[in-house]
């Protein structure tokens, strides 16, 4: 073969090998580090259980450990790090349940959650959706677990914590509310629907993260020609898990019966004109600032298409309120 034509291929192959090798090395280092910190946590708990902690050191144990370990072995032994090493052992007492895809930085954030159900959920979900640490922080700050859990019964909440959020039906696509704080639209600002749509397009990566796993963006203002008239759906996606088109219309204010009728029209069009073999029936999502529950109930009563309604808000949810609501549900 001509060396001139094969040399670039050689460079490309070597580059690919280096990338794979570095990824494997990082993967191995990460796995070893998490397991090592788990082992350290185990030793700390064993020491406490023997009574030595209360008898000799009291509440100063972690301060003393931090000082002595840092002096002997260098960085990585802050008091907070040591507390989370202890916590990772207490929560994940079987080390085999720790994910090899999550770094210590992931676990450090996850362990900040206040209860075990949250910790287990974010561990599963971060692994499933391959969240970066930054994405994980955002999802925890937006109270994703609480928003999903409040739409379920107690058994559903326990399942959510144990397996993560599984997309098995169109209803699983909905969060109530969707949190769009990344758009940075002031709550008092009198924005138009076109402005909301433009902001979403400009922040599409964040919006996809909020929508969840499986969404693939297709188009904005997707045009449909029906009966000699042109209609446009604000945002069009395809969901690769449910294998269906997902149409999203944005409403600045209240969702009303006319919005539902229009979405029903769009879905009928997509079933007949856009869906191909292997596609399931399309799903419509109306995303508004609020809705009239009674009006919506009557408007959707005889509709067979999948039309889902949810609220959005432009600010982060109130943590105390959501926590109290979730605790009440768990107590019941």
UniProtKB/TrEMBL annotation:
Protein name: DUF1016 domain-containing protein
Signal peptide: none
PANTHER family: NUCLEASE YHCG-RELATED, UNCHARACTERIZED PROTEIN YHCG-RELATED
Species annotation: Flavipsychrobacter stenotrophus
Chain ranges of the YhcG N-terminal domain: 14-147
GO molecular function: nucleic acid binding
InterPro entries the record matches: PD-DEXK-like_domain (IPR053148), tRNA_endonuc-like_dom_sf (IPR011856), YhcG_C (IPR009362), YhcG_N (IPR041527)
Family annotation (Gene3D superfamilies): 3.40.1350.10
Residue ranges annotated for the YhcG PDDEXK nuclease domain, each copy included: 172-326
């Amino acid at each position: 073969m001509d060396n001139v034509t094969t040399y670039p291929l050689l460079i490309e192959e070597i580059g690919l090998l280096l990338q794979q090798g570095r990824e494997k090395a990082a993967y191995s280092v990460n796995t070893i580090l998490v397991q090592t910190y788990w082992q350290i946590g185990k030793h700390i708990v064993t020491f406490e259980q023997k009574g030595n902690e209360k008898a000799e050191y009291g509440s100063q144990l972690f301060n003393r450990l931090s000082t002595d370990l840092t002096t002997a072995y260098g960085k990585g032994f802050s008091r907070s790090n040591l507390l989370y090493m202890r916590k990772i052992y207490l929560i994940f007492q079987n080390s085999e349940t720790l994910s090899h895809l999550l770094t210590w930085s992931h676990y450090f954030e996850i362990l900040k959650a206040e209860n075990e159900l949250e910790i287990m959920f974010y561990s599963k979900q971060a692994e499933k959706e391959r969240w970066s640490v930054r994405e994980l922080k955002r999802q925890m700050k937006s109270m994703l677990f609480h928003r999903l859990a409040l739409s379920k019964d107690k058994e559903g909440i326990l399942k959510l914590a144990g397996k993560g959020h599984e997309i098995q039906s169109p209803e699983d696509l909905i969060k109530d509310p969707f949190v769009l704080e990344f758009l940075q639209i002031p709550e008092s600002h009198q924005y138009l629907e076109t402005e909301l749509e433009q902001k979403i397009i400009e922040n599409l990566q964040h919006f996809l993260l909020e929508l969840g796993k499986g969404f693939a963006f297709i188009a904005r203002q997707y045009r449909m020609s029906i009966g000699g008239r042109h209609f446009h759906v604000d945002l069009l996606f395809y969901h690769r898990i449910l294998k269906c088109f997902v149409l999203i219309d944005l409403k600045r204010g209240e969702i009303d019966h006319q919005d539902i009728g229009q979405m029903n029209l769009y879905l009928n069009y997509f079933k007949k004109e856009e869906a191909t073999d292997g596609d399931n029936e399309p799903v419509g999502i109306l995303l508004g600032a609020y809705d009239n529950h009674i009006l919506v109930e009557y408007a959707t009563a005889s509709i067979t298409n999948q039309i889902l309604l949810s609220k959005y808000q432009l600010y982060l949810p109130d943590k105390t309120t959501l926590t109290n609501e979730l605790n009440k549900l768990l107590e019941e």
